[in-house]
TrEMBL record:
Originating species: Ilyodon furcidens (goldbreast splitfin)
SUPFAM superfamilies: Nucleotide-diphospho-sugar transferases
Pfam families, alphabetized: Glyco_transf_6
Compartment annotation: Membrane
Family: Belongs to the glycosyltransferase 6 family.
PANTHER family cross-referenced by the UniProt entry: GLOBOSIDE ALPHA-1,3-N-ACETYLGALACTOSAMINYLTRANSFERASE 1, GLYCOSYLTRANSFERASE-RELATED
UniProt-recorded name of the protein: Globoside alpha-1,3-N-acetylgalactosaminyltransferase 1
Database matches in InterPro entries: Glyco_trans_6, Nucleotide-diphossugar_trans
Keyword terms: Glycosyltransferase, Transferase
Primary localization: membrane
Topology in membrane: Single-pass type II membrane protein
Domain of life where this protein originates: Eukaryota
Names of required cofactors: Mn(2+)
Length: 140
């Protein structure tokens, strides 16, 4: 099953990015729950240079961000403000994951989307926007 969802336009790309987890959570709850085992969320401009196979079928899978693939962890753009729920302290984190390509078991992605959305919205109530919106929360 392939489902393509149009995302309403916005004045800032950050707002479109920020609503990603809400859209995923809603899609799962309204359409996919009890109908599929896996979900993969990909940016519309994703390019595949090789096959995407069954090796990606795991609980939660993500793509290492191509812009930081070879960088030392100290250079990753994690959210570094302790006031944000996306905060990662220096020395925490293993890789920097791309917000535009992740997925896995439906129940796991649903929990991830709910958690990221709640943390993002709780930050917003306190006028905090993580460095890279939902991608920062995903990396948390």
């Amino acid at each position: 099953m392939l489902i393509v969802r149009s995302v309403p336009s916005s004045k800032r790309w950050q707002e479109i990015s920020a609503r990603r987890m809400e859209l995923i959570q809603t899609l799962i709850e309204e359409t996919l729950l009890n109908n599929v085992d896996y979900i993969f969320c990909l940016d519309v401009d994703s390019k595949f240079h090789s096959r995407w196979g069954t090796e990606s079928l795991g609980g939660l899978v993500a793509v290492i961000h191509p812009g930081y693939y070879q960088d030392d962890r100290s250079k990753f753009p994690y959210e570094r403000r302790p006031s944000s729920r996306a905060y990662l302290a220096p020395g925490e984190g293993d890789f920097y994951y791309c917000g535009g390509a992740f997925g896995g078991l439906l129940v796991e992605v649903h929990q991830l989307a709910k958690t990221c959305r709640k943390n993002f919205e709780d930050d917003a109530k306190e006028n905090i926007e993580a460095a890279w919106q939902e991608e920062s929360h995903l990396n948390r």
